[in-house]
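Aim 2 progress update. The chain analyzed this quarter is reproduced below.
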Amino acid sequence: MVISRLRAELRNKLNKNSHEADWIISHVTGMSQTDFILNPREITDDELSRIHSIVSRRSQGEPLQYILGTTEFMGLEFKVNSSTLIPRQDSETLAEAAAEYISDKNLNIIDIGCGSGCIGITIAKLCKNAHVTLLDISSGALETAEENARLNGVNIQAVKCDILKELPDGSFDVIVSNPPYIETDTVATLDDTVKSFEPLSALDGGSDGLKFYRKITAAAHKMFTSDGFILFEIGCNQGSAVSDILLENGFTDIKITQDPCGNDRVVTAKLTKEQVWKKISIASRTSALTYVH
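Predicted structure tokens:
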């Protein structure tokens, strides 16, 4: 079968996911999309069989990233599987904000709930003096994260820890986290491609979606070396609630950053241990927040 005919056939079969047709063909054949046009060739029977197998699985709702076992994040390649969430473009806003803050500073960073490791590994790749620890409760996720660190040529430390029950050893300058933040009752209403294939434990943030934000923010006092900086990915409607949690725990300089679509996506804040701790009234919260566009 000629490649032009195959592309048309796959796009028809994949319907709303027709843009994935070229991705599948490239993965199986090793050809680039430019090759499809400039250097077209016949697809072999073996390649055709493998392509049809992938399309069959995709047609049943399985995410293509899991089928192929790989995806891209911030221009880097990451392996993914059913132990990890699929990295999403939303999270690039978090990685970019962390890399901008860390820059070339010699800092200890911990990525809590690392999953595939895409955020922490990207930080290690972009910030050469950063010392990155990846933390997750899932052994499968940590194994995948360690493999991704090797794949991307960075050194990290992987730690298995249930952040709801214990704290990791060591002290840190920066905490970065994309924690589970979907309300428990909402998880059941998610698209089947998410709730049937991705790890629910990495999605469920408790009854109000804020369980992990409360725990990590409270734990930060014991985890920071001295002054510290925290970065959270948030759901698009959680900016105020997460900011309140940070304020109640003594954090200052709270900023909310929006993603390219204009949705609130990242909350950052500083913690200064030398200051006299006191709860900041919710009434003063609005004047304390800064929105970054």
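Strands lie at 70-73, 76-79, 108-112, 131-136, 156-160, 172-177, 224-233, 252-258, 264-271, 290-292. The radius of gyration is 21 Å. These observations will guide the mutagenesis experiments scheduled for the next reporting period.
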